[in-house]
Design goal:
Number of strands: 5
Radius of gyration: 23 Å
Shape: globular
Strand order of the largest sheet: 2-3-4-1-5
C-alpha cells in the first residue's frame, strides 16, 4: 500500500530505493505530509481558477424570506449529484432573492469536492469571448468556459446583447451540452422573454432548448433581500437617532 502511494505521489527517489526505505517508520508519515500538502495546493489552485469571489455561506440564507423556494431541491443541488450526471441547473427569479449567493455556494462546494469550476457573469464571459481578435484566439478562450467540470453563469437577462453575443453563448452551451458538462445559470427572465435579451438572434430557440433539455429548474419568488436589508438598516439608524435625541 505504501508503495502504491509513493507511485501516485511520483516520489521516484524513494521508489528507486524501496528495499532500503520500505520498513522505515517515518515513511507513512512522510506520505501523509506530502498528500496533505498536495491536496491543499490543489484546492488553492482550483479556488483561484474558479474566481468565485466573496460570498455568504448557505447557513446564512434566510429561507423564510422568499415567498416561494423549494428548500429540499436547493440543498439537493449542493450535493452536486447533477454535476456527476452532467445535467444543468437553472435558477429563475427576480433581482435580489439570493440566486447569486446560492450559485457561489454551489461553485465553492464543487471546488471542495475536487471539481474544476469557473464562475462568471454573463456579461463578463460574453465580453471576454467577443474581445478575441482571431478565430484561433477565440478557440483558445472558449476552453476557459468549456473545459471546467462546472460552469456557473450569473445574471443572464440583466442586459440585452446583439446576435454576436448570442452566438457565443450558444457555442458555450452547445459544447458543454455535447460533453456533457454541467452549467449552473441564474436569470431574472422567463425563457419566453429571452428573445428580448438576445433580440434578432436566430439561435435563441435552440439555445434554450439545449440548455433545458437536461436541466433542473429552481424557481424563486419574493422581494429583494437587498431592499429588505437597506430598509432594516435605515430603520435601525432612524431608531438610533431618535434615541439620541431623547437622551
Amino acid at each position: 500500500m505504501l508503495r502504491s502511494r509513493l507511485q501516485r505521489l511520483r516520489l521516484h527517489g524513494l521508489l528507486a530505493h524501496w528495499d532500503d526505505v520500505a520498513l522505515k517508520p517515518w515513511l507513512a508519515e512522510l506520505c501523509a505530509y506530502e498528500e496533505h500538502e498536495r491536496q491543499r495546493r490543489s484546492l488553492e489552485r482550483r479556488l483561484r481558477y474558479a474566481r468565485i469571489g466573496a460570498f455568504k455561506s448557505i447557513t446564512d440564507f434566510d429561507w423564510s424570506w422568499p415567498k416561494k423556494i423549494d428548500k429540499d431541491a436547493t440543498l439537493d443541488l449542493l450535493s452536486l449529484g447533477f454535476v456527476e450526471e452532467g445535467v444543468n441547473a437553472v435558477m429563475l427569479g427576480p433581482n435580489g432573492v439570493g440566486k447569486t449567493m446560492l450559485i457561489r455556494n454551489i461553485a465553492h462546494q464543487a471546488v471542495v469536492r475536487g471539481h474544476t469550476v469557473r464562475f462568471t457573469t454573463a456579461s463578463d464571459m460574453l465580453s471576454d469571448l467577443a474581445a478575441q481578435e482571431s478565430s484561433a484566439a477565440l478557440k483558445r478562450r472558449l476552453r476557459r468556459y468549456c473545459q471546467p467540470k462546472l460552469l456557473c453563469i450569473d445574471e443572464v437577462g440583466y442586459l440585452s446583447y446583439d446576435s454576436r453575443y448570442a452566438d457565443l453563448l450558444f457555442e458555450v452551451v452547445t459544447r458543454r451540452y455535447e460533453g456533457p458538462r454541467s452549467i449552473v445559470l441564474s436569470t431574472n427572465k422567463p425563457f419566453s422573454e429571452w428573445s428580448q435579451v438576445f433580440p434578432n438572434a436566430a439561435c435563441v430557440v435552440t439555445l434554450v432548448d439545449r440548455l433545458l433539455h437536461r436541466s433542473e429548474i429552481l424557481s424563486i419568488e419574493g422581494d429583494s433581500f437587498r431592499l429588505k436589508e437597506a430598509t432594516d438598516r435605515a430603520a435601525a439608524k432612524a431608531k438610533s437617532r431618535s434615541t439620541k435625541r431623547k437622551a
